Amino acid sequence: MEKVESILYGSRWKGFLGFIALILLLPLVVSSQYVFTLLILIGIYCIITIGLSLLIGYAGQISIGHAAFVGIGAYVSGVLTVKYNVSPWIAMGIGMVVTFIIAYLIGMQVLKLKGHILALATIAINVIVYILLVGLSDYTGGAGGLVGIPNLSLMGLDLGNQLYFYFFVWSIVFIVILFSTNIIRSSIGRILRSIHDSEIGTETLGVNVTKYKVAIFALSAVFASLAGSLYAHYINFIAPPTFYISFSILLLVMVMVGGVHSIWGAIIGTAAIMFLNEAIRFVGHTYFNINGEVEIVVYGLIIILVMIFIPKGLIGILDFRKILPIESSMKKDVTVKENVASEKGV
Amino acid sequence: MDLFLQYLITGLTVGSIYALLAVGFVTIYNVTGVLNLAQGEFAMIGALSCVTLVNLGIPIFGAIPLAILITAIIGLAVERLAINPARKATPIVLVVITLGVSIFLKGMGLIIWGTSPKSLPPLVESKSIEFMGAVVNSQSLWILVVLIAHLVVLYWFFEKTFLGSALRASEKNPRAASLMGINTSTMSMIAFTIAAGLGAIAGVMIAPLTDATYEMGFFIGIKGFVAMIFGGMHSIPGAVAGGLLLGVIEAFSGGYISTYYSDALAFGFLLLVLFFRPQGLFTKATGERV
Amino acid sequence: MGDLLQVNGLTKKFGGVTAVNDVSFQIGEGEIVAVIGPNGAGKTTLFNMISSYVQPTEGEVLFKGKKLTGRKIFDLAHLGISRTFQNLQIFSNMTVLENVMMGTSVNLKTNVFSAGFRLPSVKRDEEYAYKAAYDVLTMMGMNDLLHEQAGQLSYGLQKKLEFARAIVYKPELIMLDEPMAGLNDAETNTMAGYISDLKEKGHSFLFVEHKMATIMQLADRIVVLDFGTKIAEGTPDEIQKNEKVISAYLGEEVI
């Protein structure tokens, strides 16, 4: 008997192979240190935006405060390694557990409510976390930031090396994609999608809808925390403004622009916004001699235009599903139908 | 005791600003069902365009209505250009659009007015008043007066005029309203225009106290939002009470605990309200529990 | 015959209007009970109170001696009660197969983390859900539609799909809100066939319906509502002869 998963959702290995090939090939063509740093940051941000796309596209909830969870991860890692000499790997784990507990407790209370109350609750969390990061200066270094966060090393390999860290981060992105698509391609994925069509229908079938929304929220927070830890160990320096609401908004924009209904949309959106960001900065500085965050005008316009004209995001125009049949359950291609035909003997 | 009174008065002054913003939020939310995250930017535009008009030599009493008018027109443009084309979209998309509008307006503010804070002269130049040992800034009194005038006018508008009832109807039941010949798209446009004007008033009133910058919008908007949640999302009097309460919480936590943590405490209180009284503090109605 | 479901004095007031007034009846194991009544008699409100969608003003519902009133909607499926809706609540963007697999949710143990890590239990769950859904769809002759999007099906097929989804996990009590509404005669007969087959296997049914011929043919007992009050209860034969029922239906096209 063929695997139930591939009967329902087709194969995802083509997409994975394309992804792995791209990650392996990029270092061969990219020589600039600057672009390399950008690629690593895109990888780190992808970990967060994949979680957010699960939250927005599947659980149907919006967060304007994920930077707080990134901040918690980064600071737990930073403070424990710098001030208490804890192993970076253990610190990273502690950060994820702490974030999970916070997100779970908040989600449990707030996700019972209808509407977009979670958006407001996450803004509140972001403000509180930011203030605490600046305020608890004995531990966090306050507004001046925390310096001297060690590089990671894995089995004797110094991940301070750009190339190693690049492969390390993108391996983690791969694991995150695998984990997330595992969820989407299971009964959990079906439950999350069914909520969009009929929440009452889903509950009638014995599903405690809130429980799944909370779990996805907590999971997306844990991804954010992991990304925060990686960021801290990569940049070796963290300061509170990095983790303010403006970063939460940037993350949200990445996901929405890429397309929330697909994990790949999050990745495309993250890369697109990061390159756009650099392009605007370059053009702004070189030709217009502008300082400050003028690029936000362009962001604002892009968000509005994308939401009005392609609410499904960039992935909607590219329709990568034809190449990467990840969530292609809607439209079955011929081969899957044939599998089903031979399946009738069950 | 003196200190207590001083904090209370400061709290009510700041709270009145939050209340003014919250009223704008409730108006849009009730009519269109959209959480407008750009409401704070209307306050920013109101304040900064008023500063520009005053610098052009227009007297303050002429500059304020002009600034409100300009902001209201921007509100109208925002609704026509960004909200109306996406009226059939999901709530998440609409929230994100208002977020985009907020970022865009903030960026425009930066380009037009630059980064340095601008100050606006108070409505009437006068000395502070002593009241039972507490100092009351005359601008604070003006803010209270404006807030009360607001409530009276809005009450009259929503309860006594045809347009007001049409706006309320399109919130309660958009389909029925459109069957009755009320154009909900027009109502949405009017709601945004009014809300932008209300935002501008809040901005113009607060600018003499705190100086105006292009960045002021988002945070002040969020505060208005918190006030709206305290008041239970749907009620204008609730939003006003919520705004005053938020101002007082901030003033007292700033005075007795730490100025630095007053925002954290205010938002912590918001989380508590969301957890335990999501239907708002001042309503008896059951919340929208699933 | 033991009582599976006991409805005791259910009353619902909306403001000053009493939609359902002190209604009581029982359903025995393996029994098919129909609720009928003219339009606006309170059938749907009664149905919604029994299935915990609406809280009664007074009265309670017991299922195998356990109180249902006040429970969460999702608890009912775990107790062995499933229902369908008059205005279909199928998942229109999902396939037929996925829709019916959703019906097995109560028997699945997969959670977000076991799914993410692909623990062996997830594979077992998926295989169980697939097989259960496949069997039901085969039984209903729908296995050439497995991968069609549910929203693309005809109304009659959507109705069958919702029924399949409600019975796939073999609940003891199946509540059907107008299962035949909008179906043609052939489809109605097929649906009636499924219901009596399941009754043979020991399932009980409570349903609201307008098509009298079907009700008379299927139901063991009929409860008649008029203006929110129970005016009669009995076998189809008794109900057909009941004066009160006939006068309540005067002016309507019946029997």
Walk me through the structure.
Chain C: It comes from Lysinibacillus contaminans. Chain C: GO terms for molecular function: ATP binding. Chain C: InterPro entries: AAA+_ATPase (IPR003593), ABC_AA/LPS_Transport (IPR051120), ABC_transporter-like_ATP-bd (IPR003439), BCA_ABC_TP_C (IPR032823), P-loop_NTPase (IPR027417). Chain C: Pfam families: ABC_tran, BCA_ABC_TP_C. Chain C: This is Leucine/isoleucine/valine transporter ATP-binding subunit. The complex is a heterotrimer of chains A (346), B (290) and C (255). Chain A is an all-alpha fold and 346 residues long. Chain A is 73% helix and 2% strand. In chain A, strands 1-4 form a two-stranded antiparallel sheet. A two-stranded antiparallel sheet of chain A has the order 2-3. In chain A, helix 2 (13-29) runs antiparallel to helix 8, helix 4 (66-84) packs across helix 11 and helix 12 (245-258) crosses helix 13 (263-288). Chain A is globular, with a radius of gyration of 21 Å. Chain B is an all-alpha fold and 290 residues long. Chain B has a single domain (2-276), classed as ABC transporter involved in vitamin B12 uptake, BtuC (Orthogonal Bundle). Helix content of chain B is 74%, strand content 2%. In chain B, helix 3 (60-83) crosses helix 8 and helix 5 crosses helix 6 (162-172). Mean pLDDT of chain B is 83; it is low at 285-290. The model of chain C has no long low-confidence stretch (mean pLDDT 89). Chain C is α/β, with parallel strands linked by helices and 255 residues long. In chain C, helix 3 (96-102) crosses helix 5 (120-139). Chain C has a six-stranded mixed beta sheet with strand order 6-7-8-3-9-10, sandwiched between helices. A four-stranded antiparallel beta sheet of chain C has the order 2-1-4-5, covered by helices on one side. Chain C starts with a strand and ends in a 7-residue tail after the last helix. Chain C folds into two domains: 1-80 and 171-255, P-loop containing nucleotide triphosphate hydrolases (Rossmann fold), CATH 3.40.50; 89-169, no CATH class. Classes of the chains: A mainly alpha (346), B mainly alpha (290), C alpha/beta (255). Chains A and B meet through helix 5, helix 6, helix 12 and helix 14 of A and helix 4, helix 9 and helix 11 of B.
